[in-house]
Write a structure and sequence with these properties.
single chain, about 675 residues, alpha/beta, OB fold (Dihydrolipoamide Acetyltransferase, E2P), Rossmann fold, seven-stranded parallel sheet, six-stranded parallel sheet, 21 helices, 21 strands, globular, Helicase_C-like, helicase, DNA repair
Amino acid sequence: MIQLDSPIADLKGFGPKSAEKFTKLDLHTVGDLLLYFPFRYEDFKSKSIFELMDGEKAVITGTVVTPANVQYYGFKRNRLSFKIKQGEAVIAINFFNQPYLVDKFEVGAEVAIFGKWDRKKSAVTGMKVLAHVEDDMQPVYHVAQGVSQAQLIKAIKVAFDSGALNLLEESLPQVLMDKYRLMGRQEAVRVMHFPKDLAEYKQALRRIKFEELFYFQMNLQVLKAENKSETNGLAISYDEVKIKAKIATLPFPLTKAQERSLSEILADMKSGAHMNRLLQGDVGSGKTVIASLAMYGAYTAGLQSALMVPTEILAEQHYQSLKGLFPELKVVLLTSGMKMADKKVALSKIESGEAQMIVGTHSLIQDAVIYHKLGLVITDEQHRFGVNQRRIFREKGDNPDVLMMTATPIPRTLAITAFGEMDVSIIDQMPAGRKTIITRWVKHEQLDTVLTWIKSELEKDAQVYFISPLIEESESLDLKNAVALHQELTEFFGDSATVALMHGRMKNDEKDQIMQDFKDKKSQILVSTTVIEVGVNVPNATVMVIMDADRFGLSQLHQLRGRVGRGDKQSYCVLVANPKNDTGKKRMQAMCETTDGFVLAEEDLKMRGSGEIFGTRQSGIPEFQVADIVEDYNILEEARRVASQIVSDPNWRENPDWQVLEAHLRNQDEFD
């Protein structure tokens, strides 16, 4: 009998070997499959061009009426073009950088092309050639190597056929479902995977979005209420004289914004109330040194502090910088990649209290870690760490103070809603003497000139990042683009530079090694599909080239730009893009006009609409499977209002209307 927690291997037609592949997508059980939703749908029903809106993606069928030819331009760029006839209309078809498709289009052949309609030019930019046309909406899921769309859809269908859907319990109170006219959970999950039509899908999406945002807000409001009722927060009596003396030894003066943020944090630590603060600052604004001084404050009060970061390479980086700032203290590193013997030594130092500052990844909250006297917890890029993980940390110490850091400038209105349970400190000023990164926007046709200029920069001992964007349509296409770019650059630069490649399919330790080699100047150029980890510091890297920059949101572009300009040399960011619309052009112009992340965040909010405002996995904004904190701001606000109203009643858990909440509340970990 299949249960929600049954392993995928128990499904008919799936054994341990095929189920193993699904773990790459973090899918382990039948329940995981049910709740793994598509990120978009392709409507494979062929449309007449007269039904299409400008810019709409659709399937268009017709007869090929002119021979297909390929034109080459720029640096290994090309366009395949021909015309088709649909009824009496003649449509120009263009495929970019896919010359190998030329044989598929013979004059007189009937073709079905999935692409983007340009009404003004009466043209379609092709994305895919379809062998046959379906009549329905096809789900498109994020996949990984070894797991195809077809395999994933098959597994989900088998899970449905096994009756697993009927085991899903309703997670929303009936009162709220009636009030907002929401679809039931089982029905919504079915429709999310296999909608009959767009109207049905929109209803399911509304239900799932509300559920995600409502539980996110419930967690925040419960946490806020717990914090308010807690008078047993730590009163950390730090030594003010020692902190001032330490600040005087820093190789640079603190900015006014840094001083203000530090005094807000220290005031929280000294008070008996539990600190729950978000430290927000632009890339390079000096958040880390403020966090380090707060850790030093805890040390002067005889307490340990822990700094938790998302990746091992960042943990190593913070570990080295803390050792540099506090040579007199015992700083300990703890990550899952460490050798067992080293790990045992670290654990023993943490437990005995010999370790005064601890830096690590998720390893810091594992059962084996016993703190001697934990007073302060700092999490960097806190969207990676869920509410439940924060609770574990609180239980590890005597309710330690919590400080969270994010490098994403978040407009204040959004920060208040997204981080409703936190106080916010903002470092909105850059350290003196830091050179402004010069940003230029060029068209693809000008890439040759850029490469020639890069050659001269490499001769001055510079290092260069090249970012090839993630294209959601296909993971294999991302890789193909990055591999092609890597080959082109290797050919262009020859013996004058070593070009490294980093992409999402690599294992973490492999990526860390490539990044380490780049830091050690073993490679001069790094091509990457994955957005380079926030906070990774390579002072010698002075040039950032972002290919197809119009595919990124402003905040993402700004994050990427922040990977350079980390040393004392002049740094540059080159945006290579031929934007198709005004929004894309405005983004490029905004990037060239300002390096202020807060200005760009507000600008991004004005231009929003596609849900890419904060980019994937790069912001301090919590992530959700289907909800978008900017696009769905109205739902988020309503969810906050309702959650706040429920939790304001101290006896809400006894109210029969809210019984269903308790069971689902602890299962939510909405930041991960």
